[in-house]
Amino acid sequence: MNHLSKIKEQLHKYGIEAMLITSEPGEAYAVGFRGEGVVLVTEDECRYYTDSRYIEAAERQITGCGIQVIGGGKGHMALAHEDILRLGITRIGIQEEYLTLLSFNNWRKALGEGVTLVPAGGLIADLRAAKDEEELALMRQAQAITDKTFAEILNHVKEGVTEQEIAALITYYHMKFGASKNSFDPIVASGSNGSMPHAVPGGKKIQKGEFVTMDFGSIYGGYCSDMTRTVAVGQPSEEMERVYHIVAEAQRRGIAAARAGVIGGEVDKVARDYIAAEGYGDCFGHGLGHSLGLEIHEDPGFRGGCKTAIPAGAVVSVEPGIYLPGRFGARIEDVVVVQEGGCEVLTRSPRELIVL
Question: Under CATH, what is the fold of the domain 4-129?
Answer without folding.
Answer: Creatine Amidinohydrolase; Chain A, domain 1 (3.40.350)
